[in-house]
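User: Structure please.
Assistant: Input sequence and predicted structure:
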Amino acid sequence: MVDLPGVDLPHVMTYEQALRDGVPDGTVAVIGGGGIGVDTAAFLTESPDEAVRATEFGARWQVPVSGELVGDLPQRQPTAHRTVRPGSQVTVLRRTGKFGQGIGLTSRWVALGRLRDAGVRMVGGVQEYLRIEPGRLWIRDECGNDVAVPADVVVVCAGQEARDELTSGLATADVPYAVVGGARDARSVDAVRATSEALEAVRRLAP
């Protein structure tokens, strides 16, 4: 969790909590506009029904979508846990860099396009996150002005830290190991990189 006054208030949650438990109704401020923040914003504004999402994707990109391909897909999370809200209620904030940085080039283009279509507000150049209060998140914007962002809920998609506390025990026990993915570098949670590193580790470590 980031070091920020008000971060311990009950309406503040991590992205893991948001994706697992859902997010209450109302405005949402997403701290962090990397790949995780972009995906979380999509989670907040898109239907939980995979068939509906596939149909909407097909309509947007003029691609025929067969009901046979999506009609029987299991739902990753019960619809009751998902509150789909207008994009206008969601603000994604980022200090520096590009929104969705770390996502593949074409995937990023699509991901940002769907957020813009939904009306999600994306605020870059944040100089400082000042404090969280009930109903709002105070920031210092790129012009140096203190601005209150509407936030009935704040979702933190920043501050990830690599964790490799198992390595010392494995080394002591003389167990071959490799640290890969987010455990090695949590600055950008990249599934493609993590999978590639894991496969390479298996090739190197397997007898």
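The beta strands are 12-14, 28-31, 90-93, 121-123, 128-133, 135-140, 146-151, 153-156.
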